[in-house]
Amino acid sequence: MRVALAVLIGLVLAGCAAGSVMVRPQADSLQLGTTTYDQVLQRYGDPRRTGTQVRNGETLKTVSYAYAVGTPFVDDVPARASGFYFLNGVLVGYEYLSSFREDKTDFDETKVQQIKKGETTRWRVIELFGQPGVPTDYAEG
To answer: Could you tell me the CA-to-CA distances from 7 to 74, 130, 139 in Å, in that order?
Structure first.
């Protein structure tokens, strides 16, 4: 999430009207553990950024895409960003961020306090917030 957020903020501050128009990936359109790096590139084109990130002791390859329109400090600049994470060329996580009005969700931030690292199960989080639209963690449990 930090990578995608950094891209989104970078676009806004740089004043870019860049990238190709993107939409939120459908939860079933990308399969964790199955979709390959090449398949993501085929679907989304050349990434805006590539890099690596260590998660759970594994080095992941990261790619990110971004799209923004408007002039910062003059307009309310809507932007979208997606980040994809690969282990050995296979998708293990992805995320999507957007400040476009049509992408708004109804997220109850007051429930976040009920999540305790190392204690709260995945099932409890689903109970609190519902099924995830975009999975981002490849760790089991």
So the answer is: 20, 27, 24
Domain map of the chain by residue range? Answer: 2-129
Token pair 């109970």 is at which residue?
127
7-21, 24-38, 76-90, 96-110, range with the lowest pLDDT: 7-21
> Taking residues 56-68, what's their average pLDDT?
90
Determine the Cα angle at 92 with ends 87 and 94, to 5°: 125
Distance in angstroms (rounded) separating the CA atoms of residues 17 and 1: 22
**pTM of the prediction?**
0.63
- CATH class of the structural domain 2-129: alpha beta
